[in-house]
Amino acid sequence: MSRLLISFPGNELMTDKIGAALKIERAAITIRNFPDGESYVRVLTDVNGKEIIVVAALDRPDTKFLALVFLLRLLRDSGAKKITLVSPYLAYMRQDKQFQPGEAVTSTYFAAFLSACIDELITIDPHLHRRSSMAEIYAVPCHALHAAPLISEWIRASVPLPVLIGPDSESEQWVSIVAKNANAPYLVLEKQRYGDRSVSVSFPDVAPFRSHTPVLVDDIISTARTMIAAVKHLREANMRRPFA
User: Fold this and answer.
1) Predicted TM-score (pTM) of this structure
2) Where are the domains of the chain?
3) Does CATH place domain 3-145 in 3.40.50.2020?
């Protein structure tokens, strides 16, 4: 069974790098909007009997997801034998329980929608905070790759005397691994969230690390309020200009 790559709009550079590494050709598609905002989707390459790998980062998902679903369903209707979605940024993972009565647990709903359209999912560092694995919500095989080794390698090569900073307790699972691989110390801040756009961050004693270069590590930047609060504390502590 031969394979083809498909780039969802905006993912062409990443798709071509994957294609060069795996020696897989990229299929041609057209995705655009009608004047009223509806999506037009067309596959211009024969996909019948082939394994199709669709590359689509799902940041800002509400502007992308419907067209992606149309594309995936079209591939199936056109005879694709296997559909693998490569989504380095996988959306709708944060709402994994009802924090307030009546809330939608959108991670579960989103996983059901996506599972119905694909045969396999590959992502990077999904936001598994209250879940132990993707299998708890996805009905297809999932492969979670990890960026920590590459980030650690870059820090070792590029950052003089680093100290890693986790902007909240949830980030410790990533910060600790990156720090260990980079042979660097780390600190974790405590965050109090008052709403989607309002947070406060308490800062530990950084006096022992004033000569270090701070490296902020987290998995999701939505409004960047948490990152901004952390950077503000670092500046007030007269630390070096941070990396994120």
Assistant:
1) 0.83
2) 3-145, 148-236
3) yes
